[in-house]
Amino acid sequence: MRFAGKCVLVIGATEGIGRATARAFCEEGANVVIAGLGPDRGQELAQELASASKSEAVYVECDVTHEQEVRSLTEFAVRRFGRIHAAVNNAGTEGPFGPLHERTSEEFDRLLNVNLKGVWLGMKYQIPHMLERGGGAIVNTASSAGVRAIANIALYTASKYGVVGLTKAAALEVARSNIRINAVAPGPVDTGLLHRMVGGNVDISAIAEKVAMGRISQPEEIAQTILWLCSDAASFITAQTIVADGGLTEA
After folding, report:
1. Are the CB atoms for 22 and 59 separated by under 8 Å?
2. Residue 6 has what pLDDT?
3. Rounded-to-integer distance, Cα 237 and Cα 134, Å
């Protein structure tokens, strides 16, 4: 129960890694504000978590590309639970699979707005709150594509490289204020995002073969990495990107 009595904000929690992360925090005693798009999925998750634990779980619909919605989300979490001890900026989207020169301006704007601007807006409102309350921990979801480029998903790669850089710079700015900011960079994870991204272009088994461990990960495995980064066990870790990819980028 590492997070008993603490409030955690998980943005991008309606599916995949975010959903597993919200569930894991609740299992360890946290009160969780889950945010994302899709009220049916969000409310279903909140009810599931509340009934399965003694923790509170509340869902808030939030489009991370809209600044007012992100600000309102942060203010809601503070009103509901008094403060935010940890925040996870996990909202993300995939882009079409194919060469860079075939991508459109609309695709570029959508990917960068969700994957990079969304992380920036999250921290923009989480950091001032944590400065006022004496600290906290933030984890941003990057990708192994943010530490080693991957062909045919260039815009996604660029957005995740941006998350890595944004995380490092922000962490250095607040390192002496008891706020730790890190990123997790998952390799291939068995989520809808991966299947949508490569579906019909690359077989999942072929991706698994490129991983040193010979498989893709489950969302719950990445969630445990996020929880560790938010916990006191990682008290001297900041400005880092933890690559959780089964050895993919080293193979």
Report:
1. no
2. 97
3. 17
Look at residue 228 and tell me whether its pLDDT is greater than 80. yes
- Please tell me the distance from the alpha carbon of residue 153 to that of residue 165, in angstroms, as a whole number: 19
For residue 202, what are the CA distances in angstroms to 12, 190, 206? Answer: 25, 14, 7
- The active-site residue out of 59, 125, 156, 161 is 156
Judge: domain 7-250, CATH 3.40.50.720: yes
Q: Which residues pair with 57 in a beta bridge?
A: 32
CA separation for the pair 100, 108 (Å, rounded)? 10
Task: Examine the pLDDT at 15 and tell me if it is beyond 90.
Answer: yes
Burial 70-105, CB ≥16 within 10 A → b, else e? beebbebbbeebeebbbbbbbbbbbbbbeeeeebee
Catalytic (active site) residue 156: yes
Q: Are 115 and 63 in contact (CB under 8 A)?
A: no
